[in-house]
């Protein structure tokens, strides 16, 4: 239990029960328990407590006598705990104290409550009225763990020592054979080490902490002895396990290196054998998009097979790099040589695959551009073969613009075809650089002839289309010019009609005096010059349409009625302009005479003798007023008035006012004449 007597000897408690006790089992148990303490601890002797309170006297007696044979030298005192007054009569027949010399130890019969006379209460368990805390199942479990750990660790140490010692002796082949025979221990070292650490931690925790309830607990001598044993075993295990791990690492590294060498040779042999042979058989570029795509699909299958080996290369390269980083000098040279060999072969093969892929892609792009250009030329030729029948100049311009765009697109397409073709030819010329000595002149010549033939054919087709475009462009430009002349001629008629309309509606003022009227007359002449220019411009445009129609061998659709319209509007404008000029000239004469009369002084004697000018200006004014009420009559019999009736009334009112002033002046001049005879 961990309790000690007053001489510091361990207390051994033997609890007996009502059932039959096997002496053989009890003997084996005592042998085991007495083997646990150290020799130093055994030298202090044992105090044995035989708890016979639940047993019979003959069993107790047998147990006491057995102690003589099992541990006579170590036992110093045997305390037999008796039931209350149950054995008194039987004890007289066998007195243990008389047998002390024969037994070799002292035997006393004592009640449980008087056991403290011989042993301190703190060293007794609760069963005997003491305060010592003891859990037998806990002790048993810990002891079983200790025994198991001791057994497993001892066996493991022997196995590890055999493995480690075998790896340090003999040749490399012998070491490998030894490692192969004893490579795996019977138990997991990690598990044994963990068990030992947990056991040591538990022992140390009980050593320093105490038991449940906070009562101080004196460690058992077997536990004090177990701690150094566990620590020693753990140290030995760690040492041997470290050596074992190094042996395993070396073996694993050697195995890994051999596996890497084997895989490297597999990759190299395949790439330089079947892989290279696959590429040697692929030289064509195809003569169309479909053929190039079929070759690309075949190449993708070849790449797919290579990708599997390249994946192995990547994995091997990572493994070699990891081994190189480990820094084992003895393997560095061999690893670097393997890495270099593998990299050279893989990079060379990858370059060949990439070259072939680029060549096929360039061929596909070349055929794609050639097909697009061929379709553009077909579309342009179809457009040129259709006769032009536009509705107006705008549609011709749009058609011409579309034609130019198509021709420009063809130019760009041909330029792109030449660039793609030249790039493809350059790649083909470099194809022999990785041909592995194979003569590829025949294959290259077929490819070169095909590329050059496609470019020459497209150039000839483009030239024929250009010639047809030039002819079509000239015809369409003439048609554009024809429509433009017709449109401009019609516009000239509209402008002339607008000038006529402006002349009738806005050119109605006759001026307030002679000076203003002369200014209006000058403006009118300039206005007439503009109309004359417009008429002449329209005539020239109509003459040009006749020439263009003869050149295009077509009849104009609008010039036939444009010329009569132009002449009719011009005649109307001429008649209206002449009427405007006549009115302005009459107004100038009227204003000039009126202003002359109104500005003469009454004191001038000649003013009284020239009365005819008053009659003249009155006649001119009446004539002008009459003319304002008369419409303009055109050659076709139609009539038009200048301005609105209110506009004409305003102009006429101004003339009448001036005529009144002149009449008033005339009366003023006559008054002096009438007063002279009277005087």
UniProtKB/TrEMBL annotation:
Q: Which UniProt keywords apply?
A: Repeat
Keyword Repeat found: yes
Q: What is this protein called?
A: SESD1 protein
Organism, scientific name:
Donacobius atricapilla
- Kindly list the GO molecular function terms attached to this UniProt entry: phosphatidylinositol-3,4-bisphosphate binding; phosphatidylinositol-3,5-bisphosphate binding; phosphatidylinositol-3-phosphate binding; phosphatidylinositol-4,5-bisphosphate binding; phosphatidylinositol-4-phosphate binding; phosphatidylinositol-5-phosphate binding
* Gene name as annotated: Sestd1
Domain of life assignment? Eukaryota
Q: Which PANTHER family match?
A: SEC14 DOMAIN AND SPECTRIN REPEAT-CONTAINING PROTEIN 1 (PTHR46607:SF1)
What is stated as this protein's family in its record? Answer: Belongs to the SOLO family.
């Amino acid at each position: 239990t961990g309790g000690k007597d007053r001489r510091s000897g361990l207390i051994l408690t033997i609890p007996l029960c009502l059932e039959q006790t096997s002496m053989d089992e009890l003997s084996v148990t005592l042998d085991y328990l007495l083997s646990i303490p150290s020799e130093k601890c055994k030298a202090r002797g044992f105090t044995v407590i035989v708890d016979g309170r639940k047993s019979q006297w003959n069993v107790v007696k047998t147990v006491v006598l057995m102690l003589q044979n099992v541990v006579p030298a170590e036992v110093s005192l045997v305390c037999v705990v008796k039931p209350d007054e149950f054995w008194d009569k039987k004890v007289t027949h066998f007195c243990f104290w008389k047998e002390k010399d024969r037994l070799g130890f002292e035997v006393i019969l004592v009640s449980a409550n008087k056991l403290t006379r011989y042993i301190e209460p703190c060293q007794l368990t609760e069963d005997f009225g003491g305060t010592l805390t003891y859990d037998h199942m806990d002790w048993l479990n810990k002891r079983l763990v200790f025994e198991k750990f001791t057994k497993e660790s001892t066996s493991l140490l022997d196995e590890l020592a055999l493995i480690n010692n075998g790896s340090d002796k003999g040749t490399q082949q012998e070491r490998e054979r030894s490692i192969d025979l004893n490579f795996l221990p019977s138990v997991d070292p990690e598990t044994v080490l963990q068990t030992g650490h947990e056991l040591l931690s538990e022992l140390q925790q009980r050593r320093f902490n105490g038991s449940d309830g906070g009562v101080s607990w004196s460690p058992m001598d077997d536990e004090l002895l177990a701690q150094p044993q566990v620590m020693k075993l753990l140290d030995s295990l760690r040492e041997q396990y470290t050596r074992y791990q190094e042996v395993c690492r070396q073996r694993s590294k050697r195995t890994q290196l051999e596996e890497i060498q084997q895989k490297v040779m597999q990759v190299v042999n395949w790439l330089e054998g079947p892989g290279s042979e696959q590429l040697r058989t692929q030289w064509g570029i195809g003569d169309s998009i479909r053929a190039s795509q079929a070759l690309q699909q075949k190449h993708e299958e070849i790449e797919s097979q290579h990708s599997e080996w390249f994946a192995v290369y990547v994995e091997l390269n990572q493994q070699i790099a990891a081994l190189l980083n480990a820094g084992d000098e003895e393997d560095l040279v061999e690893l670097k040589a393997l890495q270099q060999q593998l990299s050279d072969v893989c990079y060379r093969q990858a370059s060949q695959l990439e070259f072939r892929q680029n060549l096929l892609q360039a061929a596909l792009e070349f055929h794609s551009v050639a097909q697009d250009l061929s379709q553009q030329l077909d579309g342009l030729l179809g457009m040129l073969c259709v006769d032009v029948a536009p509705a107006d100049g705008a549609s011709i311009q749009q058609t011409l613009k579309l034609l130019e765009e198509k021709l420009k697109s063809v130019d760009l397409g041909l330029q792109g075809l030449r660039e793609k073709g030249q790039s493809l030819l350059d790649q083909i010329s470099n194809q022999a650089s990785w041909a592995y000595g194979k003569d590829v002149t025949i294959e290259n010549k077929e490819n070169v002839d095909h590329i050059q033939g496609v470019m020459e054919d497209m150039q000839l087709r483009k030239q024929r289309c250009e010639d047809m475009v030039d002819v079509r462009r000239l015809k369409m430009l003439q048609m554009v010019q024809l429509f433009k002349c017709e449109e401009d001629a019609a516009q000239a008629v509209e402008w002339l009609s607008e000038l006529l309309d402006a002349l009738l509606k806005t050119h109605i003022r006759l001026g307030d005096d002679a000076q203003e009227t002369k200014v209006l007359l000058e403006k009118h002449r300039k206005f007439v010059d503009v109309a004359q220019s417009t008429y002449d411009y329209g005539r020239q445009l109509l003459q040009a349409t006749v020439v263009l129609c003869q050149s295009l061998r077509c009849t104009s659709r609008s010039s036939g009625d444009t010329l009569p319209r132009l002449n009719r509007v011009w005649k109307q404008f001429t008649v209206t302009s002449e009427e405007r000029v006549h009115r302005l000239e009459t107004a100038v004469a009227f204003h000039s005479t009126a202003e002359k009369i109104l500005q003469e002084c009454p004191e001038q004697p000649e003013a009284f003798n020239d009365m005819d000018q008053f009659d003249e200006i009155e006649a001119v004014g009446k004539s002008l007023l009459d003319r304002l009420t008369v419409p303009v009559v055109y050659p076709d019999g139609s009539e038009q008035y200048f301005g609105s009736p209110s506009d004409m009334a305003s102009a006429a009112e101004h003339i009448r006012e001036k005529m009144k002033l002149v009449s008033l002046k005339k009366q003023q001049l006559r008054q002096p004449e009438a007063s002279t005879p009277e005087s």
